[in-house]
Amino acid sequence: MGHGEADSPPAAEKKGAAEEEEDDFGYRLFPDRNKKPQSFLFRSLFTFHNKCQLMLRLTLETNPYARLLLEALKQSGCTVFNDRHFSCENCDGCVSGGFDAATSQIVLCQNNIRQQSHMNRVVTHELIHAFDHCRAHVDWFKNVKHLACSEIRAANLSGDCTLMNEIARFKFGLKGHHQTCVRDRAIRSILAVRKVSKETAEKAVDEVFDACFNDLEPFGRIPHSKADAKRAYRDFQNRDRYTANL
User: Fold this and answer.
1) Where does this protein have compositionally biased stretches of type Basic and acidic residues (predicted)?
2) Backbone phi and psi for residue 11, each to the nearest 5 degrees, phi listed first
């Protein structure tokens, strides 16, 4: 998996030991990836699947973060289709979603996403990974720095580190707190999907942090709220119209 958004810190790993194990690239957190698809009727009646699909549709239609990213992906030649590029599945309890680079598919953890605001944030986070996958030659599986860069961008631009979200996590800070949150969440996400030591994850994040934190595409700004995201969306549309008239 290109990414797995961790809801809680992964279990502590012994230094060096994790790197010696064969890496499954986080697929253990998404067990439904390897199961035979269930019938639509079964999923609708006996799981969270139907609710997940309804929340996803609302996010894609109304959330300014998601709408901007969908348009940016389309302009980059990577049009996103609901039934092809999103999959509601049951996941491990520590993740909310993931981007499967092998299939260019976003996995939404239907058993862990219960609120619309959570769905909005997870979809945005994973669409940033999809945007990075579309626009750049990201080596998700072998280059931890590439993964670290996309995790930094996703944490920075998706709303993961808004003041309200941090207060909900009982984390408070003043100067530089946003950067601290982005760094910490990027490290946690790497540890969730890669069998590397914490030191390796921290080193990768620190080495690319400045460049990737300051890469604000396609938003052009850090959207700290829906109002910011709406302004970014309008600016993106105006930029597109300006370019089209050149």
Assistant:
1) 1-18
2) -60, 145
